[in-house]
Write a structure and sequence with these properties.
With about 260 residues, the protein is an alpha+beta fold. The protein contains 10 helices and 6 strands, in the order αααααββαααβββαβα. Strand 3 and strand 4 form a beta hairpin.
């Protein structure tokens, strides 16, 4: 847990260093999806780092939150408003202070857990290791929105492998979440790490495979890039279908950007 929590804290602190230096008007820039501002992205992270901290430190309080905050939601638009409302009402300084407090308490709690400890969440309970990976992925994903809207290149994350692994292990989820049959055809994944190291998953003799930069794969599974706008090589019908529906985060099924709509020059 120590290593993954260090990667999570690095991701959070690096994004904090970026947004804390923004001018007031930059906080109001619209993210590429056109619905959220930069401030909304941080509101989202702060809210869910708060509820993640509850799950890690006080499961009973987390269960009360499910009933009191989310039990009255009838559609996803309401969920968005509820989860962003507290942060939107704050100044950017107060929002950053809240986010810092919640995320640091979360990391402090996670690092003390056994990797196999089970934590409640919005779907099935998760192991502490998977829980930390999911928070890292979420921070990386919403950070990508902010780097994109500012049109600057993000630094290489030490947590890239965790995100790629989450993307691979949610293969079945990506189909089942849409009510689709989970394909039985194996898909080999071979990704080149930012360091040049080769990361692999699956059977080496599989006839279908995905290969290319690990960062590109992560951007597809977090739905921030269309696979056609990456350097990934996708071979096979199942592999191609997977990249069309890949979703490594919880919640109802969503689709990533259309080709050519999030290509950052």
């Amino acid at each position: 847990m120590k290593a993954i929590c260090a990667d999570l804290a690095w991701e959070q602190d690096t994004l904090d260093a970026l947004v804390s230096g923004l001018a007031p008007d930059q906080w109001q820039l619209l993210a590429p999806c056109g619905r959220w501002t930069v401030k909304d992205e941080i509101c989202h992270l702060a809210y869910f780092d708060h509820t993640a901290r509850l799950a890690a430190t006080d499961p009973e309080a987390f269960q009360r939150h499910l009933v009191e905050d989310l039990g009255r939601i009838k559609h996803m638009d309401e969920a968005t408003e509820i989860t962003l409302a507290k942060g939107r009402a704050m100044s950017t300084g107060d929002l950053l202070a809240w986010w810092r407090r919640e995320r640091r308490q979360l990391v402090d709690a996670l690092v003390r857990l056994d990797p196999k400890d089970r934590l409640p969440w919005y779907g099935p309970p998760m192991s502490a290791r998977s829980f930390a990976s999911a928070r890292l992925m979420e921070t990386w994903a919403h950070g990508q929105d902010i780097y994109d809207v500012l049109a600057i290149e993000r630094p290489v994350s030490p947590g890239t492998r965790h995100i790629a692994h989450l993307g691979v292990t949610t293969f079945g989820w990506s189909f089942a979440n849409r009510g689709m049959a989970v394909p039985e055809t194996p898909v080999r994944v071979e990704l080149t790490a930012p360091s040049g190291e080769l990361w692999t998953w699956g059977d080496a003799v599989a006839t279908e495979h995905i290969s290319g930069p690990a960062v590109d794969f992560c951007q597809v599974v977090i739905q921030r890039r269309h696979v056609d706008d990456t350097a990934l090589v996708v071979v096979g019908d199942v592999a191609r279908q997977w990249m069309a529906v890949a979703q490594c985060f919880a919640g109802p099924p969503t689709l990533g950007p259309a080709p050519g709509t999030r290509v950052i020059q």
